[in-house]
Write the structure tokens for this entry.
Amino acid sequence: MTVTVIADAVIAGLLLLGGGFALIGSWGLAKLPSLMSRLHGPTKATTLGVGSCLVASVVYFPVHGGVWTAHELLITLFLFITAPISANLIAKAYLHGCHTAPGEQSMMAEGMPDAAENGADWATFGYDDAEEDPLSVPTGAGGKDPSA
Amino acid sequence: MKRLLPHPGLTAMLLLIWMLMLNSFSMGGLLLGAFFAVLIPVYTAAFWPDRPAMRWELPLLRFVLLVIRDIIVANFHVARLILFRRNRDLRPGWLAIPLELHSAEAITLLAGTISLTPGTVSVDISTDGRHLLVHALDVADVNAEIAHIKARYERRLLEIFR
Amino acid sequence: MHLILLALLPFLGAGWLALSPRASRDVHAGIAVAHVVAALGLLIFIAPGVLGGAPDALRLPWVPALGLDLSLRLDGLGLLFAALILGIGLLIVIYARFYLSPRDPMGKFLSLLLLFQGAMLGISLSGNILLLLVFWELTSLSSFLLIGFRSDTADGRQGARMALAVTGGGGLALIGGLLMLGHIAGSYELADVLLRGDIVRASPLYPAALLLILLGCFTKSAQFPFHFWLPHAMAAPTPVSAYLHSATMVKAGVFLLARLWPVLSGSDWWFYLVGTTGLVTMVVGAAIALFKNDLKAILAYSTVSQLGLMTMLFGFGTPAAALAGIFHLLNHSLFKAALFMNAGIVDHEAGTRDIRLLGGLARLMPITTALGTIAAASMAGLPPFGGFLSKEMMLEETVHTAWLGTHWFVPALAVIGAALSVGYSLRFIVHLYFGPRRDSYPAAPHDPPLGLWAPSAVLVALTLLVGLFPAVLTGWLVVPAAADITGGTASGFHPALWHGVTPALVMSVTAVAAGVVLLWRYAPLLRAWAALPLFEAKPVFQAGIERLVRAARWLSDTVHDGSLQRQLALLFLLAVAIGVEGIWYGGYSAGTRELLPAPPIAIIAWSLLMAATAAVALVPRQRFVTLIYISVIGLVVSLAFIHLSAPDLALTQISVETVTILLLLLALNLLPKQPVQLSSNPERVRNLVLGVAGGVTSGLAAWAVMTREPRNPISSFHWANSYSGGGGTNVVNVTLVDFRAFDTFGEIIVLGIAALTIFALLQPAARGVSGQRLRAWIADLPRSPERHPMMFAVAARLLLPLALMVGLYVFLRGHNAPGGGFIAGLIVSIALLMQYMASGFEWADQRRQIDEHALIGFGVIIAALTGVGSLVFGAPLFTSAFGYVSWPIVGKFELATAMLFDIGVALAVIGAVMLALAELSHIAQRAQKEPVEDDGPMDIDPAKLRGARP
Amino acid sequence: MSALIAAPVLLPAFAATLSLLFRRRRRWIGAGVSIGATALLLAIDLVLLGQAATGEIGIYALGDWPAPFGIVLVLDRLAAMMLVLTAALALAVSIHATLTSLDRRGWHFHPLFQFQLLGLNGAFLTGDLFNLFVFFEVLLIASYGLLLHGQGARRLTAGVQYVIVNLVGSTLFLIALGLLYGVTGTLNMADMAVRASALPIGDQGLFRAGGLLLTAVFALKAALLPLHLWLPRAYSGTAPAVAALFAIMTKVGAYAIIRTGPLIFAGAAGRYMIPAALGTMILGFAGFLAARHLRVMTAFGLIGSTAILLVAVAVFQERAMAAALYYLPHTTLAAAFLFLVTDLLIRWRGTEGDAIVVTPGYRGQQVLAALFFAGGIALAGLPPLSGFIGKLLILQATLSSSWWPAIWAAILITSLVAVIGFARAGSTLFWKSSGDAPPSPGTSGARALPLKEAAPAGFLLALMVLLTVAAGPVTAYMEAASHQIFDVADYARAVLPPASGVGS
Amino acid sequence: MIAAALIIAMGCIALAMLLNLFRLFRGPTPADRILALDTLVINSIAFIILIGIQQTTTTYFEAALLLAMVGFVGTAAYCKFLLRGDVVE
Amino acid sequence: MSIEFLVATAIGALTAGGIYLCLRARTFPVVLGLAMLSYAINLFLFAMGRLVVGKPPIYAKGVAVYTDPLPQALVLTAIVISFGMTALALVLALRTFLETGTDQVDGTPDPDLLDRENRT
Ligand code: NA
Ligand code: NA
């Protein structure tokens, strides 16, 4: 009995935690001022939000369903692999958009550093010493980019 | 052996995943899973050339546990930031982290770790592969933060990816 | 059997001629003559029996369902007609042999002529009115080819088309008329129909049937106002004119009037329609003939007039008039064929047919003149020729005919007509043969060789003999024919040159005198005629056709304007209308099913969907953003499926969604991203209204069904038999791979074909216009230089094996839990596609180790073979089998053939998806013609940059 | 019943995949497989026709699941007739396409062709409405591929419209199916017929809407006003040989109406179909007369003559249906024949393509002219080809309809329009020589047609002659088929096993 | 206890989804919309798990698993489009 | 508010949006419209089995209440087919655009492309 009660309490707590963090993450998404800041919000939804729900599920099924499940761990694994990449790509897309849309130099305002030595630039913008100006459009569909 | 088991670690991981998916243990399931776990790496080997050497044992496990701990802690920290800090009081900042890690895999793992811990997001890598660009939601001292990340994560990863 | 041979002989001849185009002219003529002679001989052989009062008949079933039998019947009327067709036909063939120039394709000409002859003969032999229709239409078609034989001249082509349009149109009316007639009579057998005149005339359909049949007859026989085609058919070579417009084609209409006389005549309808038309035609045709200058035109209008005469006689509806009509039919055939031949000779030898350029030929062409004069005298109705006799009989009949109560009207007009015909006949004689000799004819006229004048000489001799000994020479032929027309024994055929002074004689003399006056005062008359406001029919007809074509073009171009929007709008409108109609007429009551309460999250998901839907529709110019909204819709729909107990659907929806978005993005890259707005505001309002109407209809329909209790759906069987009969607990999957495996079989084929078609579409895209456009294409988005970001590439290579493992798992468990071949195939495809995205097409494509075409092929074959395999075990196709096998160590597991089927599904899906996306993804690169190098899986490889790796 | 019933579906599946797998080898293998399989298909279909002619309805329960729960194939006279017609047409077209190298002007001609056959045959055989949908999709998507075969701007723009319109049609098909299932709880045609008769009043509106919508979708395929607008552009845009095969596609729509109308929906759509068909007829032949290109002309002729078929169908009465059934193969063959002749004309004419304009030095093309003349006779419905008998049958049978004056007027007048149109086109193409000027070399490049290439067209012509000569037995077969179509009880008895819990 | 927690958690998720909706429409950059969609997918995964717990069934987990996988592919494709135009090159 | 209402209105909205897009003048929105219509149809077809919460059609002995599995199987087939069709329509639209330079459904010249070609 007590095991069940404790388990239920744990489950309930995890559920509340999960729901709460998912909400906070989305709140951040809605509230924070720029995309780069907003990007931090959903990380919570991904990690603790979904994670807590998954753990709650892992605990719940042996207690109430009579079965062990471990799918949740797999979901977590997938999310943990993919979420950083998603964030990375979204950030890159955003930076690229700022960089190539004149007037919207928001990331400069946030003080983005140079990519340090050797005249290297960030990959999204390309090489500083490259012959290509990232603002110019390349010629031809799928043509060779100098940076490639 | 190398051709049959190109990625032993991957094979083990796949088998584990298989058993997790099956959700019940049976000898038949295990054998079938083992079969697939051997087969798939053979097929996909071509997609993963030049794998860096990696230590799969304790350091990795320790690293994972550390990251999970950090994730939980950072979550509460960032939740506070989001809920109670006004937007204009936030101190977002860019970190250009100089890298000692060599391999793409290691750097990706580092970047992933940084992203998974709330408050920081890995954004880009420099064209020479020597710097990682990270954005932080609220950072008081950029250099301290860089040093923190390098000490906490990159150092451990350097142990794993020798 | 004789009848069949008789009917076939001309066709056999035509076929033979058509198949031997290289033979010489004489051989061609020989073949034709032989066939016509044979037919004529056969006819003569049959004739005694027929004339003895025993019609020859033969009936072979052909289309019983229609009442159309191969029923041939030769009675007196048919015999007379057949004899004319064959007899004059023989002369025409001989004449044509000498008439046609060596450049003309003799074989083709005679072949068509015999074809036409066969059709005419068929009309005279038909014992079934539908069979008669068949031959009737054949005469229209073959005469079209004959009239258009001189197709290099505009006159020839136009004349042929006009003849076809008019007689073909009449033929179509005739179809209607005869069908109605047969319908009323209850039989299409001529013998039956002829007996049911009373029933027919009493039917309410009678006037309609009569009108339609008469339309057929009048057009064919060139009755006013359908007479105009005939003169223009004169563009044909003269043998054709001589044949078609004397004895055959134009007589067909008169023949049919005679043929159906017992059924159709004897009513006011008949009298006023037929009699009046004939009367008017007779006068009008003769009047026009008087003022024509082309010899063949004169003859053509005279033919119109003479046909009017015959029509009028049949229209009178009395046996005596019918007798006169059939007698005149015979006479007219003789002299008119001779005259046409004569005109042909003149044309041939003098080089023109314009009567104004001719005259005075009597000295130069004595034989021609003699023959022409006699024939024309017969046409004028002068004694002692055949034409005189039948004209006398006609005049006699008019005296007894009252028209709307007046007794003078018909005789008076008849005299006018007769006078006019005397006038044009005399003019033909006088202006052509006599008068002063001219100094300049277009050619040097002289009498033709024997072969050219002998055929007409035969006819002229006959017309003279008939005039002299009418009863002896024609009685045996005309009387039975007349008896067959009137359906009794013909009485009172007493043609003689002298009957005493009868009203007819008085009228005749008056007509001749008037005719002489007409010729005497020809010049002032011509001026008066020229002053009349007459119009030429041909331009009117052609303008009519042009107007018809223009109207058709306007209609067609207006309706078929190529607007897809209009088509779709109509389709949607129709669908909505159908919904309304169905409820309106069908009956509707509200459902009683208990509804499910909606939790808040469902409402929020719903509002997400509604908002996204509205956004997709309302901001279509931001195409990229639109796609994101589409993704939201897909996501919510998937969630709905999960919430509403459809996990398989959710899995499918989720995976299909992703592939679709990939496709859309790939395509959007090359399409305009923010195109200008094209639709006008009214259009958008229309679209909105239609959209809302469609939405309301479909929503209400869904609501109506969801709120009522299901009616014992067949799926209860599927539920009950899924595990016991199909070996799986996932009923949806068992349905797919077992109960309804045939659907799934079709479904993977659809997918396979889609991929093959996409491949076939995109393969040539790098070439030609499209290739140029691709090469000249300017990316309309600024592009980041990095093609393959490092983190993505690294993650993708880790995800690939994981995803493959998941795919296998989802596949294997599909039979018992959500999953299955299709979803597994999509998962594997997506996993592979991820590599393409992360590391580039070239890099991934070199490593994929699959041939998509073969995958599709093998997938379909495996599925099909699984289906066929059950035959080996004596079970019906697509029967599944499953069993539980127990192996040591491994334990117990299930083996099911349905899984094999599912493998086929999975393979086909992978093949199709990969083929389509791979092909689409590097279409632009291929256009560059320089292969993109394999530059590694990621652009920035730190290890490589630091030299740690080679 | 033997598994032979399924052969018309499975054989093309194997043939298609084989020619797909052999695509990298010599290309004649693909053509050989395709033509051979089509010939074999024709033989099999003839055997099936023999079986169906006995009057017994052949049932084949796929997967051994009884109707209405599984999918059954049903072979009755109607289905057998459609199968034979399709195979015969396909044989001519596949040989024609190979002879004229059409199959080499793009990818995957033969696999697509065989898949097209698969879809057609499946649609004719299935006794299940959703399965009918699936096979409709198979035949449609294969038709997209075939329509686009060879490509080019004109074909592509035509293809876009064709594809989109048919996709919307498929959407409506599904809505109709859903409604019908939602109301009746079954998908099997026979079972639905049985359940429909027992439907409570309150459900009948939905059922009716579903039935009408389904009929509208079929009418879309059959190109019935106002849903015919897609056809002219599509059929005149594609390769004529493909269009020849597509002559059967409009008949699939007609077939589906014939199948489901009397069986399930009791001819509810008839009252709308008759005026629609009359309008289609007028528009079809107006377009026919208006056409400036032979392909357009033939496409409109196909619309018009299919409308004649549909008007007889729409009477939903046994005799008229029998007439329609006789006319169905005729109109299919006639339009296909004319498309093939058009293709030959385009091939051997030179630069003018199929434009109805004068070609220098083209008067001597006797064979083509004769073929064209025959095509005209066929499409206009004149003797001595089968169209005449077909029209007589239809005129005769529609007398029982209250619409008969309009029907008669429309059929007869449009026939005249067809005659005029053909005479105009033919005299321009084959009679007129351009201003009597000697043909200047280079402007046309017309060459004489090799007889070999005319063989497939000749085959179709021979079939029409056969249809005429054997009109007696053929009409008898069609009458029996029509009787079978209207004998709902017999159909239900044959399809549904006696023990099954049919209906609610 | 669990039931109540579930309801609260679901309510949170629902609210989170609404907030995602806001960002989705508000933008302003395309990247914002992609981020909103990505978050929506994550929240959906949570929602699916909650439904699984609510109904005590594991039937829906594959859907969540699949969503985790393909959601990423979608996001990556959108970003790739913004970065390069060409999703696969 | 009932789930049935939500589903019915969703079907209605998707249909309306789909029709609205299908009636546009360019191929791309038309393809999107077709995609939306197919969502609507899938939901519609699915709804024809009536809505049931929490009873997925996984067979278990003695279970009497279940979701009608047949519409689900039909929708699965329909999803796959409409995916293939949409893909084909999309590629065709693209291919036609490349060949003709216009993405207008009626094949009329495209102002956008002219504009763009003039620019270069
Ligand atoms: Na993060
Ligand atoms: Na499944």
Q: What stands out?
A: The pocket of sodium ion (ligand 2) is lined by residues C 648, 730, 732-733, 736, 814, 819-820 (CB under 6 Å). Chain E touches chain B through one residue (CB under 8 Å). Helices of chain E lie at 2-26, 30-55, 61-84.
